[in-house]
UniProtKB/TrEMBL annotation:
Catalytic activity field: an adenosine in mRNA + S-adenosyl-L-methionine = an N(6)-methyladenosine in mRNA + S-adenosyl-L-homocysteine + H(+)
Record field: transmembrane: none
Protein name in UniProt: mRNA m(6)A methyltransferase
Biological-process GO terms, alphabetical: methylation
Keyword tags: Methyltransferase, S-adenosyl-L-methionine, Transferase
Enzyme Commission number(s) from the entry: 2.1.1.348
Enzyme class: transferase
Length: 111
């Protein structure tokens, strides 16, 4: 395994980038640009664009952490399977504001 002396970045449109050029990783943390109903300072990807990504090419054996919102929870599960990963657990973060109030209505799956 190669040790990196300094951080490295690749600026690219991941919809058209050959992920195999990056090599293999043991841990991936992914916060995809989900198509959500907010104005964000970066481009978003459609659900179908996510489905066509070859994320499985980045790893032979390892762990992926995939950030999802309530709207894309089922899509995230589908993508993990499509990309060749086995979902073994989930963590749920309930976001609150400074007054410890829910920032938004909790997702239905929390009861």
């Amino acid at each position: 395994m190669q040790s990196l002396d300094r951080p490295q970045w690749v600026t690219a449109d991941v919809r058209h980038f050959d992920l195999t050029t990056l090599g293999k990783f043991q841990v991936i943390m992914a916060d995809p640009p989900w198509e959500i109903n907010q104005e964000l300072p970066y481009g978003l990807m459609s659900d179908n664009e996510m489905r066509t990504m070859n994320l499985g090419a980045l790893m032979d054996n390892g762990v992926i952490f995939l950030w999802v919102t309530a709207r894309v929870l089922e899509l995230g599960r589908e993508l993990l399977e499509r990309w060749g990963y086995l979902r073994v657990d989930e963590l749920i973060w309930i976001k609150t504001n400074q007054l410890c109030q829910l920032s938004r209505r909790p997702p239905a799956f929390l009861g």
